[in-house]
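Annex B. Sample input.
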Amino acid sequence: MKVTTDRLVAGGVVAGPLFLAVWAVQAFTREGFDPGRHPISLLALGGAGWVQIANFVLTGSLYVAAAVGLKRAGQGTWGPRLIGAFGVGLIVAGVFVTDPGAGFPEGAPEGAGELSWHGVLHEVGFGIAQLAWTAAAIVFARRFKGRARWATVGTIAAALAVAAWPDLDSLSIRLVIASAIQFAFVAVLCRTCQPRRVATAEASLVVASGDWGRKR
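Annex B, continued. Sample output.
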């Protein structure tokens, strides 16, 4: 059965909130995990690590599905492709887990651990996701006009500023905040671009125009 475009695009609406909800449950229930100190990726380690691995992969898959939907909905070529690349980056980051560090899980070194091949690929996936999201936001900003364009530029600046702030002590929680900004942008984008909503808005505009014409 062919999945409708609306449902595909809806994947981009629910992906971010789902990811953050799963992170929050783990962050405050996993023994030894400190959300103010430990990066999200460390949750993929240990006996319950499969939960975060699945979280990365499912979230990334929803963004890939949303990218297909956005392309079907006529939202250009490169914008949807980059949203898809954002999802692929998250999938890669999930499949290839990071290395233990910062004292998590129990027995891990307090500082940065030794970098393994899968740790390198995890960082590559993370890098792909960040670059793809930034590029996608820029591409869509060029398609928008007026306040929507400036809101997109502000979103990009906010996400980069939060992530790049030179304070290592708060890096983990700032990465969560930056991720929330990124997820929110894609959610609003997908919500706005759902064909059903666009069609409803266009129909309302036609009706309003007709009423205005009759009043004249």
